[in-house]
Amino acid sequence: MPTARIYQQPKNAMSSGKALTHRWVLEFETGEAKRPDPLTGWAGSGDTREQVKLRFPSMEAAQAYAEREGIDAHVIPAPVRKLKLQAYADNFR
User: Fold this and answer.
1) pLDDT tens, 31-86?
2) Does this model's pTM top 0.90?
3) 5 in helix, strand or coil?
4) Domain parsing of the chain, residue ranges
5) CA 20 to 30 Å from 69, out of 21, 28, 40, 54?
C-alpha cells in the first residue's frame, strides 16, 4: 500500500506574494533508498512514484482522492504564519 503526505503549498521564498499557497499537494513518500549512479554519481532509485505531485484545491479533495485510490496518506498541518511588524525607523536604532 503506497504512503503519501498531504500538505499546503508553501509560499515561494523568492517573492513576497502568496500566490498559489491555497493549494494542497499530495506527494508520495520514497519506497526505496536512493543510491549513487555508478556513471554520473547522481542519487536515484527505481521508485518513480516520488516524482509525482498531485495538486488539489482543498485538503478534503486530496484526502478523498487518497481514500478512493487506497493510498495511506497523512496530513501535515500548515505552519502558523507570524507577522513581523517593523517600521523603517527601527533599522536606525
Assistant:
1) 888 999 999 999 988 888 889 999 999 999 999 999 999 999 999 998 887 888 88
2) no
3) strand
4) 3-92
5) 21
| pLDDT for 12 beyond 90 | no
Asked if 47 and 31 count as a contact pair (C-beta separation under 8 A), the reply is yes
51 C-beta neighbours (distance < 10 Å), count: 8
Fold of 3-92: Double Stranded RNA Binding Domain (3.30.160)
The full DSSP string for 27-86 is: EEPPSS--EE-TTT--EE-S--GGG-EEEESSHHHHHHHHHHHT-EEEEEPPPPPPP---
